[in-house]
Each structure stands twice: as structure tokens, then as C-alpha cells.
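Z., the sequence and structure:
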Amino acid sequence: MDLAPIPAPAAPSPVPVVPGWAVPHGPMTDLPEAAFLAGAALNSLDNLVRANPPWAGAWRARLALTCAAVAARQAGRAEDESMLRDAWHLRPPDADPGPAGRLLAAWRRLAERSPGVDSAALQSVCALLGLAWNDRLAFLPDEIDRLLATSRPAPLAATAVVRAVAAVQPGAELLGWWLADQVLALRLRWPLPVPLLMAEAGGPRRAGRGGGLSPQGDGLDVTVCVAVAQGATRACRLAASIAPRAAGLDAVVPKLRAKGAGDAVRRLLDDDVVPGTLQTDALSRFAARRLFERLVTLGAVRELSGRSSFKLYGL
């Protein structure tokens, strides 16, 4: 008997969308306008986070993958999303995923753990991001607590932590954006952070003179507000694409007879992809391969690697 019952199909709920007027178009320099758009976009995203759909794990994991791919590019690496997936999901259990895979580990950690950073967690994240520890960074947890004790709006609190990181360790932009997502989650009281801002950091939306992240840069507040609005929009659009796929998976659940299918379904809802070589106490590799092939035939999941072997399946 399968000890983990297959979840019953559920009617999908409408996914909140960011209204078109709240999506930034073109360069912006006006802070009140940028902050207004960021707040409007965050309202839609907040509704989605609080709805906590059953596929939220897959959604966050895919957002983490996108952020990690941008981080890899910012770090001068060549790995794209597909290569990062392979580095993470095809490695032996508990093996080091390599430098690029560690970037993915940082953003997956962000998506999977309750928001909050102490000194030990900060040092661990710096190691994943390939940043040498600097004792001047040790004040950041206290700085975050101080920011949260003020009435500063969430996007501007996120800006403040990006500025604080840039002030004490120039070149540590990856850490600044990672912590900015933490601050957003803490300020909005989300149970889990949503990986957003790193994916927007490498785009053409930087504001101010030179477009950099100088702690004194007059465009940094606008830059982060625009990144929040763009990131929230992208996150809601991704959710809107995942939701019907998850509903399709729910719809075929009654047709699944494989022992252990329930565990496979839950993993598909909880992560970006699941390896075709999945093996559990109730599901052999052979049975898993047949299950995934059937799910693809039924249109419930997609094979995302494009390979004939070492396949990866996801919503």
C-alpha cells in the first residue's frame, strides 16, 4: 500500500495579476512614481503569497533558478538555467554542485527557509555566493533589524540594505540583492521569501548616473523600486503559467495507479523539476520512468532537459 496518499484534485484559484498600469515601461527617474508602481505590484504579489497555492514550492524554485542564472552571469560565469538545473539535480546525493550550483543553492535556500539572517547564516550565504567573509559584514543582521524597526516602506527598506552592503563591501552586489529579498519578506511578513530582485539586477532598468549600485547613487532608490515592480510582475506571470499546469496534473491524479505516485506528484508541485531517475521507498527507478512518461503523454508535465537520457520533468 502507498503510505503517502495522492492529493485529491482541487479547483484552481485565480492567480493575482499585476495591472498593466503598474508595470514600469522604459527608464524611470521619478522616485514617487517608481515607489507607487512597486507598491501596486507588491499588492498583487502579496495576495498570491498569502493564498499559498499547492504549487508554490515549484513556483519559488523556478524563481530561484532564474535569479541564480542572472547571478552566474553577473559573476562572469557561462552557466544558464539549463546548466544550473543539471548541476543541482543530477549531482550525486550530498555532492558539491560546483561554483555555479552553489549560487543556485543560495537562492534555493532563500526560497525554502523562513526569512531572517543571523551572523552564521550570513557567513554561510557568503560562502555560497563566492564572497570572502569580511568582518564589516557582521553588522548587517543588526542593520536589518534596525531597518525593520522603522516605518520605511518595503521597497525602500530593501534599497537600504543594498546600499549598506555596497558601502561596506563594494562588489558584493549578489549579497545585496539576496538580502533585499529577505528584507521584503520580513517587512511584508511573508512565511517564505520570494526570489525576485537578482533577476532584475542585470537588466537595462538601472537608474541614475552610470546606473551602478554606489551607496551614494541618487538613482538607487528608483532602481530598486523598479526592480520590485518588474520582479513582482514576472513572479505573478510565472504563477499564471504554472497554475493551469498544476491543475492539469491534479486532473490526471485519479488515473495514476503506480505505487508511490503520490510522492512523485508532491515533488512535482514542490520543486522546479524532478529527475526521471527518482527513486523512493515506494517507487523504483523503472516505475518512476514509466510514471513520468505517462504524465507527459497525458499532458500533465513537461520534459525540460530535451535529452534522451538523464531527463528532468516539471510543471
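The first strand starts at residue 274 and ends at 275. Residues 256-314 form a domain with the Arc Repressor Mutant, subunit A fold (CATH 1.10.10).

Let me know what you think.
H.
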